[in-house]
From TrEMBL, chain A:
Cell compartment(s), UniProt: Cell membrane
Region (Disordered): 1-20
Bias type Low complexity, positions: 10-20
Superkingdom of origin: Bacteria
GO cellular component, one term: plasma membrane
Keywords: Cell inner membrane, Cell membrane, Membrane, Transmembrane, Transmembrane helix, Transport
Protein name: Autoinducer 2 import system permease protein LsrD
Protein species of origin: Arthrobacter mobilis
Transmembrane portions of the chain: 33-52, 64-85, 91-108, 115-136, 142-163, 184-204, 233-257, 269-298
Pfam families recorded: BPD_transp_2
Membrane topology: Multi-pass membrane protein
TrEMBL record, chain B:
UniProt entry keywords in alphabetical sequence: ATP-binding, Nucleotide-binding, Repeat, Transport
The UniProt record lists the keyword Phosphoprotein: no
A Pfam family that the UniProt record links to this protein: ABC_tran
Keyword Signal appears in the UniProt entry: no
Name of the protein: Sugar ABC transporter ATP-binding protein
GO MF assignments: ATP binding; ATP hydrolysis activity
Length: 340, 521
């Protein structure tokens, strides 16, 4: 099942598939699979290790915990994937999370629990911040690193301004229902994560918009000569990234029924790590939604498993740092094997 | 074409440029150029580097806005600065730096920007793949449209670019240096693609500075020199010499200075050096004051040979010696210590740091000689580099000017000059005049000849035949990462030398017994 799924979602593999001789299960096939999907193999090893070490790791309850923790990261990692595919980077998503969480909390409190207004305002804050990023990058030609670094600082400041320097507590109880309601046994953020992953996988693989995002990242001049409006594409990816960060911020605030101005701090780095572990090139033009999903799950599984093994949190960071670099090194090696 | 052919009033022209003028930073690049392209014709836009060819192409394709003049496509005014408007009018450009997207597949490249969609709005990949096959078939390209563009040879990618342009209804095709990046065996395929498009009524304009391309493709030749149109005639009315002299604006002989006499002492000895996997070993020696030319096609191994000598790539076997001392292989620092210097082909990639100043670039290889305990002695550095750049006749605003704002010729002078702050016994030059305009070219030649006279052994790889013929004391012809033959000075002076080099390089002829051993592929 995994093979079919991954080949349909990965452009390179989709191209190679028809030429392959019969897909029988053999040692050679297994080697080929390992090289093509190195990160899936790494993931399997990590899961196997935790299953062996911890009895609680494999429980349904724990799997749910991993998914709930992954959801806010998944949204910003998806946005980040689009941005990185165009050859850019969005450093501001962590701060946008904080700004929209604070804005949502503020509106919820002021409107005494008007949920619709709360959601609209929180998402609008993300949209506005993303659109500013997109405008500055695509129209003013400011390098994405700088443009979004500026937004990182700006949005973080705005988050503190909204709360007057303090968290917003004492929110109406229904504010928590945004993230804590269960449908079919899954909480809303988890459902949203699954829907978004599927939606973006389809968009990137099956629509002309997705193809143009790849084209702009692969060779901007070529895309323009072919009639792609590259500025619009660039504007759109930053805007999407901002909207997703806004939703993510709302979910995080709702989960704990409180708005904290330091929410989401440093999340952008985990999101970028997930995208890169997923095999995307920071130069643009290469990467997949499926890859990002794997990268995200790898990071979240590590967080969770190391917690279960009661590894001190500073050591967790050390281990995570090593594993991120190791995982990408393996992928670079596998990519080299793929091409030669 | 449906009315009177004889009258001037009805124009059948596909593309017309009138009085195009263009300057960059106050320097005129085009000084009033007009040209007309008729349907079903191939026009060569010839001229040396810096003559204004690429600029004219970019104006005709709507990328640049000229300071003066107009461009009309089939009678419609082309609003400058809008590639996409030019596209709608049917003008397409295949740029020199390939406009393909290497990470995407062939069919995605063909369809990007005008994707085929199913009724639901999703991509119809199956239809695009089928259609791509249809597009490629008439050009004899038997490739799977689902392979990654980056995995194909450059020549094929370029033809796919042409297919892409014409499949979008381009009636005017501008090819900027179409053969500059492709191997010789792929050129023939390009020629046949161009011919079949001509038969379909497409008007084509291609830039070049190579005679054989003009002869193979063009019906008509336009020559630009220093921004002026100096020739515009059907090909039959022009001899090769007419065209070359129109391009350089003077007699050929004036370009090259007299070369000196080599000394007896051997400076560089290369013995049984293997530069590829399982390729024949290469042996030769170069005396002080001698200029050894390296001829061969793209990919024949000239660059690889130089990089192996300089230690940038590790040769699996063999030895390199300067004088009597062996040089450790695979170690550029050892090569520099042995007084070998390399001026690489790719100036932007390997030769210079373009964002740094002339002074910094020139002092980079021997920066240690300008420092005291790690601190740069700026007075010493500026003095020494200033003297050398003066001797090179460098035209710059000063040593602080950044490299990227210099012309190609002046950049090359800096890349040359930077080695001369210390002793050099062996100078390796890879395409020393690529991207250098005519005027600066003869200065580079003078510098090379002077350095040889001073006692350096020079190895010069070049694709420019006159350079090999006129500057070398001896020439090696390379093929398949080995040496296919050698020509003495006497042989180089014979009228048949060019033909002989070509035959050796393309494997049509194995000249001596030694070469027969080497021709194992």
């Amino acid at each position: 099942m995994t093979t079919n799924r991954s080949t349909t979602l990965e452009p390179a593999a989709a191209g190679a598939a028809p030429g392959e001789p019969g897909r029988r299960f053999s040692w050679q096939w297994l080697q080929g699979f390992a090289v093509r999907h190195a990160m899936v193999v790494v993931m399997l090893f990590v899961v196997a290790f935790f299953l062996y070490k911890s009895a609680r790791f494999g429980t349904v309850e724990n799997m749910t915990t991993i998914l709930i923790a992954a959801a806010p990261f998944a949204l910003i990692a998806l946005g980040q994937t689009l941005v990185i595919l165009t050859g850019g980077i969005d450093l501001s998503v962590g701060s946008i999370i904080a700004a929209s969480a604070m804005a949502g909390a503020y509106v919820a409190k002021a409107s005494a629990g008007n949920l619709l207004l709360t959601v609209v305002v929180a998402v609008a804050v993300g949209l506005a911040a993303g659109a500013v990023n997109g405008f500055v990058v695509s129209r003013m030609n400011v390098p994405p690193f700088i443009a979004t670094l500026g937004m990182l600082t700006l949005a973080s400041g705005a988050a503190y301004v909204i709360g007057g320097g303090a968290p917003i507590n004492g929110l109406p109880a229904n504010f928590g229902s945004i993230a804590n309601t269960e449908i079919l046994g899954l909480k809303i953020p988890v459902i949203l994560m699954i829907l978004c992953i599927i939606a973006f996988a389809i968009i990137m693989k099956r629509t002309s918009y997705g193809m143009r995002v790849y084209a702009v990242g692969g060779n901007r001049l070529a895309a323009e000569i072919a009639g792609v409006k590259s500025k619009r594409i660039l504007f759109s990816v930053y805007t999407i990234s901002g909207v997703l960060a806004g939703i993510s911020g709302l979910m995080l605030a709702s989960r704990v029924i409180s708005g904290a101005p330091n929410l989401g701090q440093g999340y952008e780095l985990d999101a970028i790590a997930a995208v890169v572990i997923g095999g995307a090139s920071l130069m643009g033009g290469r990467g997949t939604v499926w890859g990002t999903a794997i990268g995200l799950l790898l990071i979240q599984t590590l967080n969770n498993g190391l917690d279960l093994l009661i590894v001190p949190s500073y050591w967790q960071d050390v281990i995570k740092g090593v594993l991120i670099v190791l995982a990408v090194a393996i992928d670079v090696w596998a990519a080299h094997r793929r091409t030669s | 074409m449906h009315t009177k052919h004889s009258t001037e009033a009805v124009s059948t022209a596909m593309l017309e440029c009138h009085g195009i003028r263009m300057s960059f930073g106050g320097i005129p690049v085009l000084k009033g150029v007009s040209l007309v392209l008729e349907p079903g014709t191939v026009t060569a836009l010839a001229g040396e580097n810096g003559a204004g060819k690429s600029t004219l192409m970019k104006i005709a394709s709507g990328q640049y806005k000229p300071d003066e003049g107009t461009v009309e496509v089939r009678g419609e005014h082309l609003h400058a600065g809008d590639i996409q408007a030019a596209h709608r009018l049917g003008v397409a450009i295949v740029p020199q730096e390939l406009a393909s997207i290497p990470e995407m597949t062939v069919y995605e490249n063909l369809f990007v920007g005008r994707e085929l969609r199913s009724p639901v709005g999703l991509l119809n990949r199956g239809a695009m793949i089928r259609q791509a096959r249809e597009y490629l078939k008439p050009f004899g390209l038997e490739i799977d449209p689902t392979v990654r563009m980056g995995s194909l040879p450059v020549g094929i990618r370029q033809i796919i670019e042409i297919v892409k342009a014409t499949s979008r209804g381009a009636k005017v095709l501008l090819l900027d240096e179409p053969t500059s990046a492709i191997a010789e065996q792929e050129v023939g395929r390009l020629y046949s693609v161009v011919r079949s498009l001509r038969d379909q009524g497409v008007a084509m304009l291609f830039t070049t500075h190579k005679m054989e391309e003009i002869r193979a493709m063009a019906d008509r030749v336009i020559v630009l020199r220093d921004g002026n149109l100096v020739e515009d005639k059907p090909l039959q009315q022009l001899s090769d010499d007419d065209i070359v002299e129109a391009m350089i604006g003077r007699e050929l002989e004036d370009m090259f200075p007299e070369i000196g006499t080599p000394q007896d002492e051997v400076a560089l000895t290369v013995e049984d050096l293997v530069i590829g996997d399982g390729t024949a070993p290469v042996s030769f020696s170069v005396r002080r004051g001698e200029i050894l030319g390296l001829a061969g096609l793209v990919g024949a191994g000239r660059t690889e040979l130089m990089e192996s000598i300089f230690g940038m790539r590790r040769a699996p076997a063999g030895s390199v010696a300067v004088g009597n001392r062996k040089v450790a292989l695979g170690n550029p620092a050892a090569a520099i210590a042995a007084k070998i210097a390399l001026v690489p082909e790719d100036r932007k990639g390997a030769g210079a740091v373009l964002s740094m100043s002339v002074l910094d670039n020139a002092s980079l290889p021997r920066i240690k000689s300008f420092t005291n305990a790690g601190w740069i002695n700026n007075r010493k550095r500026s003095g020494s580099i200033g003297d050398i750049m003066k001797s090179m006749n460098l035209k710059s605003r000063g040593l602080g000017q950044t490299m990227e704002t210099l012309s190609g010729g002046n950049q090359q002078k800096v890349v040359f000059g930077r080695w001369l702050t210390g002793p050099v016994d062996v100078l390796l030059l890879d395409e020393p005049t690529r991207g250098v305009d005519v005027g600066a070219r003869s200065e580079i030649y003078r510098i090379i000849v002077d350095l040889a006279r001073q006692g350096m052994a020079v190895v010069m790889a070049s694709s420019d035949m006159p350079e090999i013929l006129s500057l070398s004391h001896r020439a090696l012809v390379m093929r398949g990462l080995g040496v296919a033959g050698e020509l003495s000075k006497a042989e180089l002076l014979e009228p048949s030398a060019q033909d002989k080099i070509f035959r050796l390089a393309s494997g049509l002829e194995a000249s001596t017994k030694k070469d027969i051993e080497n021709n194992d592929n």
